[in-house]
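Lest this sound abstract, we let one protein speak, letters for residues, whole numbers for local backbone shapes, and leave readers to judge:
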Amino acid sequence: MVSQSRPLASPGTHCEVRSCARPYASATVGVMSAVIEVRTYRAKPSMRAPLLDLLASRAFPLQRELGMRILGPLPSQEDDVTFVWLRGFRDEASRAPLRAAFYEGTDWLGGLEAKIMPMLDSYAAVVVQDTAGLWPRWPA
């Protein structure tokens, strides 16, 4: 497992990424499984609603256009800053190039990053294998 913590825009913020993804051959269908990032975000106070709007209107559509599948966002019922969203990839091999296409693209670097990152207090992502076979049933 790979675990990293990175500072965000200001002291006291962090990012943790854990990756346990490995190619997985499903015993039932004999194909490589999809991988899913389970992403948990904490917005800065009073920033969750505008952050969710920006993700839903700009970031998620761009990622879907590239071939990623997005489920969420799913706001926490326990507080007003946390939310979860899932980002799926057909397989582990497609994950790095699709992420690079988004994070190195003109939309992200040309302003979206500068709008989203200041709204975040922290975020964490865990990469899991789609052993349940969600990919074929996941809305594109």
In short: The chain is about 30% helix and 30% strand. The beta strands are 2-6, 14-19, 35-43, 69-75, 82-89, 120-129. The chain has one domain: 2-24+32-132.
